[in-house]
Design a protein that fits this description.
This protein has 71 residues and is an all-alpha fold. Helix content is 63%, strand content 0%. The longest helix has 15 residues.
Length: 71
């Protein structure tokens, strides 16, 4: 099984954008993280109401799905 890991600078920018509530930046970065298998920090999982142990990819897919439902 192949795992995809996003560069740390993209993951860090994603977390900073979430903290700053920069919706457009979060959505832009989420598009780059949909296949990322890096584990999401626990506090962010809780913030996004994802199970502990979720990945950046799971968070990105949830954010993109929510964004498309908002349109």
């Amino acid at each position: 099984m192949d795992y995809v890991y996003a560069p740390s600078e993209i993951r860090d920018r994603f977390l900073r954008a979430l903290d700053a509530d920069e919706r457009l930046v979060v959505i832009e970065l989420a598009r780059e993280l949909t296949a990322c298998n890096n584990p999401l920090p626990g506090m962010v999982s809780e913030q996004l109401k994802l199970p502990l142990g979720s990945t950046y990819g799971a968070a990105a897919r949830q954010i993109l799905a929510h964004a498309s439902n908002q349109q």
